[in-house]
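RETRY 2/3 - previous attempt timed out on the joint model. Re-submitting the same 874-residue input unchanged.
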Amino acid sequence: MKVIYLGLIGFGTIGSGVVKLLQEEKENLARKLGFELRLKKIADIDLGRPRPVSVPQDILCQDAMMIVNDPEIDIVIELMGGYEPARSIVKAALRNKKHVVTANKALLAEYGDEIWHIANEEGCELGFEASVGGTIPIIKTVRESLIANDISHLMAIMNGTTNYILSQMTDERKEFDQVLKEAQKLGFAEADPSFDIDGKDTAHKLAIVLGLAYGGSVKTMDFYCEGIREISHQDIEFALELGYRIKLLAIAFKRGSRIEARIHPTMIPSDHLLASVNSNYNAFYLVGSASGPIFLFGQGAGMMPTASAVLGDVVDIAKKLKGEGGKRVGLRDPEVHVLRPLDLVPFDEICTNYYFRFMAVDRAGVLSKISGILGNHNISIASVIQKGRKKDGAVPIVMVTHEARERDVQDALEKIEQLDVVHERVKVIRIEDERLK
Amino acid sequence: MKVIYLGLIGFGTIGSGVVKLLQEEKENLARKLGFELRLKKIADIDLGRPRPVSVPQDILCQDAMMIVNDPEIDIVIELMGGYEPARSIVKAALRNKKHVVTANKALLAEYGDEIWHIANEEGCELGFEASVGGTIPIIKTVRESLIANDISHLMAIMNGTTNYILSQMTDERKEFDQVLKEAQKLGFAEADPSFDIDGKDTAHKLAIVLGLAYGGSVKTMDFYCEGIREISHQDIEFALELGYRIKLLAIAFKRGSRIEARIHPTMIPSDHLLASVNSNYNAFYLVGSASGPIFLFGQGAGMMPTASAVLGDVVDIAKKLKGEGGKRVGLRDPEVHVLRPLDLVPFDEICTNYYFRFMAVDRAGVLSKISGILGNHNISIASVIQKGRKKDGAVPIVMVTHEARERDVQDALEKIEQLDVVHERVKVIRIEDERLK
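RETRY 2/3 succeeded.
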């Protein structure tokens, strides 16, 4: 099996996530791709600190240039963060004709033009899905899926820390300072939180997306950026009363031939999808000229979500390096020509929660008869609604069950429908609840 | 400039959308890509019917084989729909080493294995983003962005017609039959609606996504599929009372080594993102092993949204055909090496709605003073909240404005802050409302 060699520079949280994912998904990736992704070297100045993954000692080094100058390495993954030495290392890697995948939004926002220029000159790829929106495929969506669209608007929640703080202020009715302290304790905010709460992190990400969506150069100081320090609980309450929620939004849209771009706390209608983005999630609402509105939501940061985005980019580049006759993807196992059928669970073995509506005569003992049969079939009731009193005819009895098995449900309902106090067929609607949390 | 030749088979609604988008975005696409996409031939059996776009007569033909056998055509776009002759034509195109882009979910759900097998043998690409979720990049997300993930769950609203009907039944408190009739009048439901409302359309789409996410072969008759005919308004009311909404969901997840897959009306918690997908929109909620939850939302059908997805696939394939030194994308104009700065609107020229909170003494004439100054600066008030009565000290006066200009707002607030009845700085929060609709 062919091998694509990777070098990782920066072995912190995200770097550890990338190593973990490469280890865990090694066989799956090889099967899907038809070639192996092999991590050949990892560089980090601090090799001693404890990490959640273990790697062979001989692939570790302290000098990033050992990766940049390794002729066998095809793709360099830069996860150091910050401007220097990341900038010099990325440039050197591109000059050595290595493709680069990075999550470094500060670097791209500040020096993206220079870096893209070198990548173009050298014919190298630059993957940066992980730099904006973490695991959300916003870069791919804008530059690939929506390529035949003008992006007429973009409104995005791009920073998890500020969204967490605003969500807590709204839901727990607390003031900013208190929530910030709690967020710092929980690890949702840095000891020095100014980068997040003053909107600078959002500004870096908006600069990257603006360049992508509107094809030009832009610096973070070129647009207005206001953070969330001045938001008080009183204003959140007034916003709710007016039908709004307050979110830190990055906003961009076309106004004639010019682009309007700004970042500030924004009141948005409570029933909009963006208003329901809580906790530390990120989300992008964009409107394409042909596509209409698109909304993308997910984890904007974190070890494994970011690692997932980094590997998405690595695989995209690796597939192209391998040529693969123009084939895009491990849609199906490339070696397997007769597909095995998926092993599906038979429907009567599914387990879920159920809603039942019985139409039953309103008479003593009916509820006990029905619940007795359900109990005999291992179906336990979570809640009951019984309403209305009728002398004659049937009234609805509604029950929601705990998790039960389809076969048991069918057997029980067959018996219940034979009761002379039960009219009509029982209405069954399945419930998904736990799996959506 | 190099040219990639396209052939279009099927000149109906979506086909017209593709032609329109190719015409409108001709220059933009050429600039982004560095090559031209040229529609060389269009085949349709009915060349006479009126269409919303005009094309040169000499590119029209009635025989799809003229496209399949044209040696110059690189990419065939199949938008006929249905099983035959689409199946034979797609197979013939692949055998002639043409890449194929299709929106034909029925064909892929029923004959996908056969078609993918031929595409693999011939080293051809098969693009089918438009077949599931319309403009939503679900295919790309599953097979590219989440390649390093196991998809642990998928819950999706894949059919716009049924979602429209259920939304109307919920919001307008109407019964199924009435809403269906209205939907048919509005063009949201077919004259023969069974394909949508009995879940068959959803089943085709789920079969495609299952094959993609879990890498195997599956037929629509292998999993349970129940439509929405039996949903009554009474059950929707009980669902709301229990904290749920009813949606037609396609559900899939891993249970050990097996896959559980099913389609049925499902109660989901009212505060879940999927519950807020109204009208004819589609949405996908998926959980990747590394990514965590991802939610994607957009138009699942329609002329331009579907055309946008078709062209996304066409461009992906075309870029690979052109080689482009491994470069993925028209991130920036490929010919331009010094990027022009984006032309940004200065912040004091932005126009939006505003929330103001004034802290003012509770005295007659204060409101008139404030609103007078606002009026003098062309700022008109949409709503006011004034509460609480205090003998001494300041009370909040909250105002929401109609659209106003930032510079006018700053000028007005400077004057208002000089009033001796106004204490503290005025709190300003900008509102986005109209642009989110």
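The first strand of chain A starts at residue 2 and ends at 9. Closing ticket.
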